[in-house]
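Re-run requested by the PI after the first attempt was lost when the workstation crashed. Everything re-entered from the original request form. Ligand of interest: magnesium ion.
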Amino acid sequence: MDKEICQELGTKIERRLFDALAAEAPLVPAIAGSLLASGGKRVRPLLVGLCCRLCGAGITPETLDAAAAVELIHTASLLHDDVVDGASLRRGVPSANVKWGNSAAVLVGDFLFARAFTMLNRTKHPDIPRIFAEAVESMAEGEVMQLGVDGVSSPSIERYLQIVYRKTAVLMAAACRCGAILGGGGRERESALESFGRELGMAFQFVDDILDYRADPACSGKNGGGDLRDGKLTLPLLYALDAASDVERQDMLGIVTRPEKSAGAFRQVLEFVESRGGFERAREEARSRIACACRNLEQFEDNEAREALEDLAHSLGERDF
Ligand code: FPP
Ligand code: MG
């Protein structure tokens, strides 16, 4: 994001974000600070700021509080997610659960989550904390659904979409809606920007799920193949299964649901997904969601904030790391 508007916003957001980590317990800034300092695209706080600007308002201290708070919620969710997924690498460095242990990672996540709501309350807009509280409920629900231990969920594209909507899209939608509220956009613009964030979030997770198979860990900063290892059936594989014969589908389901998977099994699944066009179809679906997201921006004036949102959306849809 090299646009001037993003650089200006980015600098202010970084300052507010690191100020927000102040705590008596040194482990809080140590864990949260090292995760934040190791990278991250700051997509969600940029969405808050750019949507606020798109609605014609300037960036106030309240906007910065809300922008930093949404990144804290996202950071808390990653700390928890890495414990749930048993991940060992995040943003190219050992994940907090590996470096400091599960208890510290979960508790610092709890702290950030609570701090985020303290900051959201400072915006003095009653809808904003409520919108994020509902978003976090939804994220937790998506993660619970993804565990797949409820005995009712068989893998399907519909189920996958329900999970992605909850675990990823709702927070981006909330970030955009919050920006519109702070920008005084009014109900119709709030709703358009919420839809923009939702479609962007869906596309973001589709790409994340492609990259879990394909990205070089040196670029993505994550361990590749984690979804398959954890038995998560994501969009590329679901599309490939959809295009396969019954026999082939049963064979593949046998491999992917096995608790232990060898490197050979991983290669076999990768080749299957590739040969059945699963990656291509998932990427096309991501592009189509990005196009759909951007249609929600058409009612807005064509200014720097709108261009930045369009650029951000396209770069996320095309990213390969
Ligand atoms: C990453 O998914 C994780 C999420 C999108 C959401 C995680 C949400 C929670 C743990 C519940 C909410 C909790 C709090 C404290 C707000 P992924 O595993 O597919 O992506 P990855 O490859 O980046 O790990
Ligand atoms: Mg994960």
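Saved to the shared folder this time. Residues 81, 85, 87 surround magnesium ion (ligand 2) (CB under 6 Å).
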